[in-house]
Amino acid sequence: MNSIRKHTQNVIVDSLSLFCMIILTITGIMIHYKLPKGIKEATVWGLQRHDWGELHFWVAVILLLAITVHLLLHTPWIKGVVSPKKDEIKKVKLVAYSITFILILTIGLTALLSPVID
Questions:
Q1: Residue 47, helix vs strand vs coil
Q2: Total structural domains in the chain?
Q3: Taking CA 69 as the corner, what is the angle to CA 65 and CA 71, rounded to the nearest 5 degrees?
Q4: Residue-range definition of the domain harbouring residue 39
Q5: What is the band of 40 on the pLDDT scale with cuts at 50, 70, 90?
Q6: What number is the average pLDDT over the span 34-60?
Q7: Which of 73, 60, 69, 71 is nearest to 31 (CA)?
Q8: Using 50, 70 and 90 to split pLDDT, how confident is the model at 110?
Q9: pLDDT of residue 84
Q10: In the predicted model, what is the mean pLDDT of residues 62-72?
Q11: Please, are residues 31 and 43 in contact by the beta-carbon 8 Å criterion?
Q12: Which has the higher per-residue pLDDT, 83 or 44?
């Protein structure tokens, strides 16, 4: 069986990511503006605010998986950027990327671990 060319894989993953971003934008706008908090019985296309939120969540999960696959497909390029030839630049980039990763992780975990106030 023939394997899919790398270019075709990139097109599929990038197209899926774009589609997910468009759906996330539409559902986010729908939840925020069309079905704001407090409107319990309102529906759009038969879906209530909670249903749109559920769709929004699962599309976000698919997007995260697509981004993971995208990064795996581009591992050689990432290695080339992170591992430059000179040792001094390599150390500076490693520290910069590590700090950035830790900041993103900290912000994400802070949001997830913060208490919900009613």
A1: strand
A2: 2
A3: 115
A4: 1-73
A5: confident
A6: 81
A7: 60
A8: confident
A9: 62
A10: 89
A11: no
A12: 44
- Pair (65, 86) in one structural domain: no
Residues 36 and 18 in one domain: yes
Verify that 4 and 50 share a domain, yes or no: yes
Cβ neighbour number for residue 90 with a 10 Å cutoff: 13
Q: How many CB atoms lie within 10 A of CB 27?
A: 21
Which residue has tokens 């999960």? 61
12 and 68 belong to one structural domain: yes
* Cross-strand bridge partners of residue 47: 44
User: What does the alpha-carbon distance between residue 118 and residue 109 come to, in Å, rounded to a whole number?
Assistant: 20
CA dihedral 75, 76, 77, 83 (to 10 degrees): 100
In whole angstroms, what is the distance from residue 105 CA to residue 96 CA? 14
- 105: tokens are 């992780």
